[in-house]
Every structure is written in structure tokens, then in C-alpha cells.
Amino acid sequence: MSTDVPDGSARSSRAGRNLPAALAVGLLLGAGIVTALLTYRHSFIGIVAVAAALSTVELAGALRRGSGIRLALPPVLVGGQAMIWLSWPFGFSGVLVAFALTTLVCLAWRVRLGVDGYLRDVTASVFTSSYVSMFAAFAAMLVVPPDGGLRALCFMIGVVASDTAGYASGVFLGRHPMAPRVSPNKSWEGFAGSLSAGVVAGALSVSLLLGGTWWAGVLFGVAVVCSSTLGDLMESLIKRDLDIKDMGTLLPGHGGLMDRMDSLLPSAVVAWGTLFWLIPS
Fold it and tell me: Is 230 in contact with 268 (CB distance < 8 Å)?
């Protein structure tokens, strides 16, 4: 979750956002996801698919506004959905084949617009396919095993705990910037808060929900906190490179959907790999 502080307003707190709107949207989204995971877990794949499609459109718009990059949007969208939905019956093999075919179609699709900017646009299209859709497919793969709903819940708990504690710690205790040129408001104190909360959340969720050992939960928590923090910094770099403040305006109090997906996308890859290694299904 990006912690860049938006422009102030009468309703904005010292935390730099419209907290009532942000909390309301966050609780609504969280309730929907938890309900899906605890009832019919495969419906989570549909949530992931919709989020990936909206995030792709947002990122395409940001790339166009910031640098004039013309994404091969139709094949990126269709290929992204193929990656996510093929992960259900075919696992990583389905994701990989869909990604390869998406790349091939993007290369062909862009030919019609001529030479100018060909490499730039194709590179951005392949980047978007991997950064958004392929990473999102790992979140979808979390729910495939019989205990998949609980695996995905551990993933969500870890990221939310890391983001929330890091945000609060950074606002009230932050003194030492972690990467001042990238995200001036992200501090080492905030990272310490993320790490503390992530370790506790990981240990409790993995042991109570999946029957794993406490140390496996600690490792899981550390891995998710690191990937979540890295994802935040990566998206901040993208926005600074494009000279934009938010990816979009879809979520009141939050900015664009991609501004909330920044920590979830890389953490999905890490969560899937860590749980697959620590607690084989």
C-alpha cells in the first residue's frame, strides 16, 4: 500500500488521506474478500480477475498520461484473464503458457502502429502482463488446494497487518526515511512496525489456520513484509518516473486500485512460494 501523502484538504488528517473514506472502502473490500474465502473459495479467483483487469486499465492510462506509452491493451487484458483462470485447472504451467502467448500477441499487435515507439510499447505491454496479471495469478493459485481459502486468508492477513502497522508507525513515529528519493514518507520506524505486526500475524495465522509451526509463520510473515515493502517502493518509483501522484481515482480515500495493489501483487508470489515450501498441500 503506497504511503505517498496526497495533497491536503480540509478533511485530510495528518496521515495525508481522507481516513473515514479510506476506512470505509477498506472494510467493505475486506469483508467481501473474507466472505468469499470462507464460503466458496474459488470465487476469490473472480475477485482477483476483476482487480487485475481494472488495475491493468489504470496502469495503461498512467503510462499513456505520463510517458505517451501505448499499451497493447486488448491482448494484455485477454491474456491476463487467461493467466488467472488457467491457473485454476493447470497451475503454474497454465500461467506460463498464457504469458508466453500474451507476449507473442503483443509483439504482433503493435506492428500495425509502425516503427516509432515499437520497442517501448511492447516492453511496457509485457511488463504490465507480468507485473499485474502474472503476479495476480499467484494469488489465484493460493485457493486451488483444498485448504486454499485459508492459505489466501493468511496472505491477506499478512499484507493488511504489514500495511496497517507500517502506515500507523510511519505517521506517528517515523523519523528516518527509508528511501527519501523514492518515497519520502516511508520510514525505518514504519518498516519496524510492519515487521512486528507481520511476524505476529504470520505466526498466528499459519499456526491457527493451517496447522503449521510458529517458526514457519514467522518466516512467512517476514517474507510477506519484505515483499509488501518492496512492492510499495516499486510502485512509488513507477509513479515518480511517470511524474504522477496516483494511478487513478477509483477508490475514495485511497486513489487508484493500483495504489492498493502495489503491496499485494509481489506478496502474492512470495506468499504462494513460501506456503508451498513450508506447508505443502
Answer: no
